[in-house]
Amino acid sequence: MIAQLLLPAADGTLVPFVPSTTPRLRPPASPPRSRVAYAAAHVVCDPAARDRFGDAQIDWDATIAYREYLWSLGFGVAEAMDTAQRGMGLDADGARELIERSLRAARNSGGTIACGAGTDHLDPKGLHDLAAIEAAYGEQCRVIEAHGGRVILMASRALAATARRAADYVRVYSAVLDSLEQPAILHWLGPMFDPALAGYWGTYDLDAAAETALQIVLENADKVDGLKMSLLDKDREIAFRRRLPSGVRMYTGDDFNYPELIRGDALGHSDALLGIFDAIALPAACALAALDAGDLEQYDAIFAPTLPLARHIFMSPTSSYKTGIVFLAYLNGHQRHFRMLGGMESARSILHLAELFRLADAAGVLRDRDLAIERMTLVLRLAGIE
User: Fold this and answer.
1) What is the domain partition of the chain in residue ranges?
2) Neighbouring residues of 308: CB distance < 8 A, sequence distance ≥ 6
3) Is the domain defined by 35-306 classed in CATH 3.20.20.70?
């Protein structure tokens, strides 16, 4: 082990890293039973391949291996979502190949998977009528279902740019849901994750937007498995959750408040479809095992130190959270390098990454501290910090 690691602080000084006493966790013996838990998974780029924004240059072996790791911990994989840099480095053709490869891997391993269907193969510079958007959704949904996958209906930038009223969203979603072979998960992604989705559901008023989303769920309840809400607003999620019809799940996408929302209350709970579960997979699996056992004290104790890490990774600008997710995968030895599609490894500062390292150690996320220190040292040297 390296004798001493000095990490940069905001005041310009170098501060010795003091390892945490957080105990290392062991994988649980069985997958979660009391909650459905999907981890939105990142992709590993191939650093030796041509890499410019919009080109999907992916290391397929490492990318699929990470999904196998998530499945081994009992998680379902939410594939080709924003965590996989969908529309932010991963184009529609790359997403389709990723989905097809991951569905094959899921069949081979017996893993649970749901895949994002969107409209990102439409020309982003043009306006498209509602019929074209319906058709685009349908095309991507058919690819997923043809390979035996469950659909996650992603929020559409094209629909946000075209729709002028709530009824436009009701029309498109109802038509797409009606065409599906099995119930889908709807995804309400807030503008903090993707500014192009501001005003989704036909309004900037979130109360009015919730009414439209709920209308779609109620009118198509037999075709809706659940709704994932990614607004980072726990009170709004709880209020919406209490209005869902029986049999329709609330999948939390709140990377700031997931322990409370998954734990639930006397009136219900949220299941999970979270990007942060990619980064904190082992602690999350252990916390869910404690919940299954009815040990709420242990559940809280495991999740509590992960919250500062999650809130740091997803801090503003929230859309840059993928950098922290991939950085942790690198520190933990799941990939050989810290490179990303479109060069997004540069989206966070060295100060941000240094604090992320501290918080990851405190949360018990680092699988092999010696390896993590070695790799953190290399990153610091490349940044000119000895």
Assistant:
1) 35-306
2) 359, 362, 363
3) yes
- The answer to whether the beta carbons of residues 273 and 185 sit under 8 Å apart is yes
CB-based burial label for 171 (10 Å; 0-12, 13-18, 19+): middle
Dist. CA 19–CA 310, nearest whole Å:
19
pLDDT in tens, the chain (386 residues): 455 899 999 998 999 999 998 888 999 999 999 999 999 999 999 988 754 444 558 999 999 999 999 999 999 999 999 999 999 999 999 999 999 999 999 999 999 999 999 999 999 888 899 999 999 999 999 999 999 999 999 999 999 999 999 999 999 999 999 999 999 999 999 999 999 999 999 999 999 999 999 999 999 999 999 999 999 999 999 999 999 999 999 999 999 999 999 999 999 999 999 999 999 999 999 999 999 999 999 999 999 999 999 999 999 999 999 999 999 999 999 999 999 999 999 999 999 999 999 999 999 999 999 999 999 999 999 999 97
From CA 120, how far away is CA 40, in angstroms rounded? 18
pTM: 0.96
